[in-house]
Design a protein that fits this description.
The protein is mainly alpha-helical. It has one domain. Helices cover 74% and strands 0% of the residues. The chain is built from 15 helices and no strands. The longest helix is centred in the first third of the chain and has 27 residues. The chain is globular and about 45 Å long. 53% of the residues are buried.
């Protein structure tokens, strides 16, 4: 088995586990507020985060070197987490994924002011085409748009913003600092809001949230292994396999079947994202913000793997 095939297979497993993780969130979202789900997800993730802390051997403290960027990233992660959990609760899985798939397009745009990245005409066209795909999925004027659609868009924007910040400060900050601050922010803010929305949780639902935290960690480990094995340009597009998982899980558990608009819009968004990834992998001048930050959107609910991924990519890019 070649390294690229191994990397692709590991990534497919990772995103399959992530999709199962999202199904559990959708089930819980039928009963509980996203505030409560986020809070307990973070709470159960802290033991796993502690393991990451114990493994980190770099010298330094937990005080960030770029406090303002770290605050911005923590806020973006909180918005992403809350928005994602809410969107999964009220929208079909495939529709949420289709909108979130716009994230690499937004990363390309945000890289201009934040990273000083140069985006040429072809990539601009790909971004515009991809955003048209988002409009096909949303179909404003034909479909009644609600808070769930807004939440999915906020997740895509927040996840892209958090990813670009990782690319900007990742060389200077310890990985554990980048990982820990969004979790701490979610724990404090969602904990403060929890009394306003709290619903008593039976042990079964607490167990489901513990499984969410465990699945996020397992999927993250598989994805790190994928990027260690294969080239980023091969591994990154595997995220789009989630639309297949979403279609299968939606039909199996929620009687959800993606309509033609969702499938067609998803195809446009995925094609645009693939084009951007391929263009950046061949570029000799780009700092490849999409490839170096390509993972699940940062939600600040578990030890996310994006801070561990981007240092792997420079050696992969030839």
């Amino acid at each position: 088995m070649t390294p690229n095939v191994k990397g692709a297979l590991l990534a497919l497993v990772a995103f399959g586990v992530f999709s199962t993780h999202d199904v559990i969130i959708k089930v819980l979202g039928g009963t509980y507020s996203p505030v409560q789900i986020v809070f307990f997800s973070v709470l159960f993730s802290f033991p796993i985060a502690t393991l990451w802390l114990l493994r980190d051997q770099t010298n330094g403290t937990l005080i960030p070197r770029h406090p303002y960027w770290m605050v911005a990233r923590a806020v973006a992660a909180m918005v992403t987490g809350f928005s994602a959990f809410y969107a999964f609760s009220v929208l079909p899985l495939a529709q949420v994924y289709a909108i979130i798939f716009a994230s690499p397009l937004l990363i390309t745009v945000l890289a201009i002011p934040i990273l000083g990245e140069e985006v040429r005409l072809r990539r601009w066209i790909a971004v515009l085409v991809g955003l048209c795909g988002v409009l096909v999925v949303l179909r404003p004027g034909q479909t009644e748009l609600g808070l769930g659609h807004l939440a999915a868009l906020a997740c895509a924007v927040g996840g892209a913003f958090a990813s670009v910040i990782v690319r900007k400060i990742g060389r200077d900050e310890r990985t554990v600092v980048i990982m820990l601050y969004p979790m701490m922010a979610n724990f404090l803010v969602m904990g403060a809001l929890l009394p306003t929305v709290y619903v008593p949780m039976p042990i079964d639902d607490l167990g489901r949230i513990a499984v969410v935290a465990l699945f996020a960690w397992i999927a993250g480990r598989f994805l790190i292994g994928a990027y260690n094995s294969g080239e980023a340009v091969i591994v990154a597009p595997m995220q789009y396999s989630q639309i297949l998982w979403a279609s299968a899980y939606g039909a199996l558990f929620f009687d959800e079947y993606p309509d033609i608009g969702t499938l067609f819009g998803s195809a446009i968004i995925i094609a645009s994202g693939l084009y951007i990834v391929l263009r950046e992998s061949r570029s000799t001048t780009s700092s490849t913000p999409v490839l170096r930050t390509r993972s699940r959107p940062e939600t600040g609910t578990s030890p996310r793997i994006s801070p561990f991924l981007w240092p792997l990519h420079p050696r992969r890019k030839k």
